[in-house]
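Q: Joint fold for the lines below.
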Amino acid sequence: MDFKVLRGTLKKELLTKYRAYPMDFFIGNVLTGFYTILGAYMMYKLLFERNMNSSFANLTGTSDYLSYVLVGSLTYLFLVRTCLNVSRSLITELREGTLESLMLAPFRRVEYFLGNMLVQTLTTTMEVMISVLVAIPFGISFQYIHIGSFLLAIVVALYSFFGISMVLGCVMLFTRDTYISQNTLFAFVFLVCGITFPSEYLPAWLRTIADFIPITGVVTLIRNSVLLGKGISEQSTIWINTLLISTVYVLIGFILMQKCEEVALEKIHS
Amino acid sequence: MIIAEHLAKNFQVKVGKGIFREKKSIEAVKDISLQIEKGKIVGLLGINGAGKTTTIKMLTTLLAPSAGTYFMDDMDAVKYPMEIKKRINMIAGGERMIYWRLTAYENLWYYGQIYNVPNSILKQRIEELLALVGLEGKQNIPVETFSKGMKQRLQIARGLINDPEYLFLDEPTIGLDAVVSKELRSHIKFLAQEKNKGILLTSHYMREIEELCDYIYILNDGCLIKQGTARELAADTFNRRNYILKLYEQSDDILARLDHNLRQYDPTTEVSGDGDCISINSSENISLELSRLCTQEGLFIREMYEKEPELEDTIIKLSKEVSA
Ligand SMILES: Nc1ncnc2c1ncn2[C@@H]1O[C@H](COP(=O)(O)OP(=O)(O)O)[C@@H](O)[C@H]1O
Ligand SMILES: [Mg+2]
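A: Joint structure:
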């Protein structure tokens, strides 16, 4: 495989998105990082700083709530960005009138979506790195980080983001809606997947749902490796569960996508 | 060679508003059989809504047919769409199908990537195509600044990026000015004659189809109502003459007398009343006979002229013949 479609799509996306306004893009990155951190900090100050109880420390293994919420927010930022790009890729082609010319070509969908994903991964990594710099003065601490475990967590995170994006992309292409579907998903993930507080605080039925969204596992893995310094073997069940659930999303995404492409093409009518 | 038989396409649509929407099936294409040979231009002629675009989309694998068979050089095209895609391409009228934020060169490069054109030949092919459509100097300018004609020309280059064996053109000259349309028509001829591509062209311009196509299918309401070589159709379909005659008085009796007398010159002549006009359709130039006849019958002519035949009229006439 020479990954022509992947590399081509990567280049196309970079050119269409960032060539025209590189400066706006850079400033946008810095600002997103800044706002994410500020949001997390305010949530900490307003809601949790004085109400911190011992159950939080028991559940999470740390009493450093600020770092807890910062890591959660950055993971969430990464998910949102990935979904925005990968999920919307085909519906954007539809809106810009290139879906048919694209679908005329005999190309591999996996590479197309991965190309879209990679663009976003590159740019969001920049955003997150800037955010981390911003977060240091607020008191995020990396003294316990387990690097190997962290890197693996990132890989698993990207895989699960990809799966979720594919499923969301199907919904978008099928309903031709990008607003309601996306914001419902984001709000839901934000509330139930342990982004700003442990999902153990939720009613049991919500927690069951949260268990079937791989983000819950992803954010736990990242926190464990960054804040608690847990190694790879110590959390093998979470790794395996998260990978399995993500795989289910990836598979459902690809199977449904073929059907959704057909439906989208049937609905094109000038 | 492409052989499609009894193709049909139904669309399921929802009608009405709110939650109480009913499902309805629209038969966009009911029964179409056609053949496309390499090196030949085949025309699909029909008014708006006849089913031309739907037919092209089935032939280009964008839509799965609801019924019928479709073979390309003996390969089942419905079963193996990925194989078919490698060997075809499609160009539609209008400004879609290219990325406006990319330059002309980048557009062709990207399509080259997804068609898996080897990079060793892609660069040269892009340059040749840009030269073919006259965009050599403009290759590094974003497409959004292009004029309609330039966008259309880039689309043609895109449609040729995989060097397809068969090319489908859906109303390619729509919205183009006369000069650009003419250029485009000569490109199309060149592609069939010099490059041996099999071409299917749809249009609602009779003259365009007549000028370009070796074989013509006329489509109405999802069905073929007539087909033949350009020469065959020219004689009995395209080259008929239409006259509009307005008299100071008009009656069925007058119509009948005109009809009877004109048929003496040309037995295929048809006379019909249409409000306060009389419309006369004939295979020959009968203007002299017509005016002489009016004088002879003592009919005062208020207005009389020859009208360029319109597709709508031709279609109405043909569908009457088919159902008769
Ligand atoms: N995607 C679609 N959904 C529903 N109806 C459609 C769709 N595409 C075309 N039609 C209908 O099918 C008929 C044929 O359309 P089309 O193939 O676009 O005709 P043409 O290209 O000859 O103008 C029309 O009545 C049109 O409204
Ligand atoms: Mg059409």
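Q: Anything notable?
A: Chain B is about 40% helix and 30% strand. Residues B 52-53, 170-171 surround magnesium ion (ligand 2) (CB under 6 Å).
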